[in-house]
Amino acid sequence: MPNEQDTYPPATRSLPTSDALSEASPTSMQELFSRNPEYMVDKNIDDIVLHMRDLRLRLEATATPPRHARVKDPNAPPKASPRQKRVLDFDEDFFNS
Amino acid sequence: MLNTSFSQKLPTLQIYVDASSLTEFKICPRRYYYSIVMGRQPMAESIHLTFGILLHKAAELYHIRRFTKAEGHADALREVIRWLMNATWDREANRPWTSGDKYKNRFTLVRTVVWYLDKYQEDELRTAILKDGRPAVELPFTMDAGYTAFTGEEFMLCGKLDRIVTFKSDYYVADIKTTQSTIGDYYFKKYTPDNQVTIYNLAGNVAFELPVQGLIIDGCQIAIEFSRFERGLIERTEAQMLEWQEELGYWLMNMNTCAEQDYWPKNDSACNMYGGCPFRSVCSQRNPTAAQKVIEGAYRERVWDPLKNRTSFE
């Protein structure tokens, strides 16, 4: 089970694409990171910055605040305690098991 | 290779002591002996050290460009990323630097720098001006430790501050730290007491003659998919500073004694601390001859000279 902070937001969550990135149509991140930087021009560097900003925007759009930073909703209905004892309904619990 | 921080009279006695060296000695004299006196480190690169150095250097470059060249955020950031892409390119192999670490690697480094500098581009922390008019960025320092070695040489404290800043009309040393853990109040509590924070605070006051109140630490959490930043204020009282300086005498005296007797005892209570000692495989050998073979065969040379390489292990 991965640590919560390793998957924030979960890796499987689909991320929206920011408008800035789709409008700029930059060189792909993979290509930029595998290119020899000696041959990079200003636009390549700007594309890297753009990709990184897009990544942040997409994460912010989908992320939930970390557990310690969440504000409790005072109007939220109280959660049932998971340890609360259940009253057995003999007929249902016994015969449906 | 010559380590210029050591005594000219006794080669095992360090005279110019930085926070990293002193911390190593405080953790364990034997560990200090292997890492600082012998100048050995494990064959594998310390990704934490490399990542930290590159992040510090990137922030330093950014502040210099913004302050001394009056560049805007976009221009300064472009030059920083250009530098970073170059610094993380392995020219010999003609391929990107590969750290082998899923948290700290080339991609997360560039991402962290962009996000960090974007976040603090209009920072309320202002780079201070030194008495000679220079911006207080990239500040190597050397100052009298207040103690004399048995060789007659004066012990000196040395290191390098990233930046001195003003915040609400007070002076602080600004520093960046990286971690993989979530950063909360408890994260900043670990810096009081802390050897490096105290030395940096002292340097701001003594070496740069500014009334520094403490450190402002930007903690950078590096995770696989994101980087997150929190800022903490670490202060030191005059009483804390005085106590630390008195205790420094005890540690330097011990360092002095170990070098004089060439005797570096193990602190075997610290072997499992800080993620495990990198020299455990040496100390766990059955006899000194076997230990010597391991330290010479399985570790590479790395001269830690704080007068040349003024940065920290973190």
Give me the secondary-structure topology:
The complex is a heterodimer of chains A (97) and B (314).
Chain A (H helix, E strand, L loop, with lengths): L18 H6 L4 H6 L7 H21 L27 H6 L2
Chain B lengths: L15 E3 H9 L1 H9 L2 E3 L4 H22 L4 H15 L1 E2 L4 E2 L9 H14 L6 E2 L9 E12 L5 E14 L2 E10 L5 H5 L5 H12 L5 E11 L4 E9 L2 H24 L18 H4 L4 H10 L1 E3 L13
Parallel strand pairs in B: 1-7, 8-9
Antiparallel strand pairs in B: 2-11, 3-4, 5-7, 6-7, 7-8, 9-10
Helix pairs in contact in B: 1-2, 3-4, 3-5, 4-5
Description:
With 97 residues, chain A is an all-alpha fold. Chain A is built from four helices and no strands. The two termini of chain A are 30 Å apart. Chain B is an alpha+beta fold and 314 residues long. Chain B is built from ten helices and eleven strands. The radius of gyration of chain B is 20 Å and the shape is globular. The mean pLDDT of chain B is 94. Chain A binds chain B through residues 5-9, 11, 33-34, 36-38, 40, 42, 45-46, 48-49, 52-53, 55-56, 59, 63, 66, 68, and chain B through 77-78, 81-82, 85-86, 89, 94-96, 106-107, 110-111, 114-115, 118, 180-182, 184, 221, 223-226.
